[in-house]
């Protein structure tokens, strides 16, 4: 039986791994990945190294799981959106809303995803970059569909990078507990994105 299968059958293991990931993300986001040693991580978790190694082989594995999980979640959310929303403009709005909502709800984790990707090994970094590329291809597909429908400008990689960068870098300033600020950011960002992409 694989580790993934064991985790899926034992909720307590899943909960413990999630707790480790969330605590690690908070530390990595506030101090930087390389500034957090195993001792500091275990002390923050109030567990022994043995308990930690029961769930992860190394600190690098935790970083890999943080980056992979949240980009995988964004990708799956995006696939669901474009599957059920066929109007290009509404699809872009829903993609933007989901992206900002996920960032606000998981700010430490997404801070780590965006800022610490260079701390991953070459193979793991490429895996995460591939997830980024697949996620951005959903936006590209939506823009191309809108261009074909005559409502959006032709696809431009530079223009799309500019729009996505606006959403991505909200992790720096957005306040997770300020629902009013999040709602305002969603409306403002979506408005700017549509004005920049609309024909």
UniProtKB/TrEMBL annotation:
InterPro entries attached to this UniProt entry: Homeodomain-like_sf, HTH-type_TetR-like_transc_reg, HTH_TetR, KstR2_TetR_C, Tet_transcr_reg_TetR-rel_C_sf
Coiled coil ranges: none
Keyword Transcription: yes
Lineage: Bacteria, Pseudomonadati, Pseudomonadota, Betaproteobacteria, Burkholderiales
Protein name, as recorded: TetR family transcriptional regulator
GO MF annotation, one: transcription cis-regulatory region binding
UniProt keywords, alphabetically: DNA-binding, Transcription, Transcription regulation
Organism: Advenella kashmirensis W13003
HTH tetR-type domain boundaries: 14-74
Superkingdom of origin organism: Bacteria
UniProt DNA-binding region: 37-56
Pfam families registered for this protein in UniProt: TetR_C_24, TetR_N
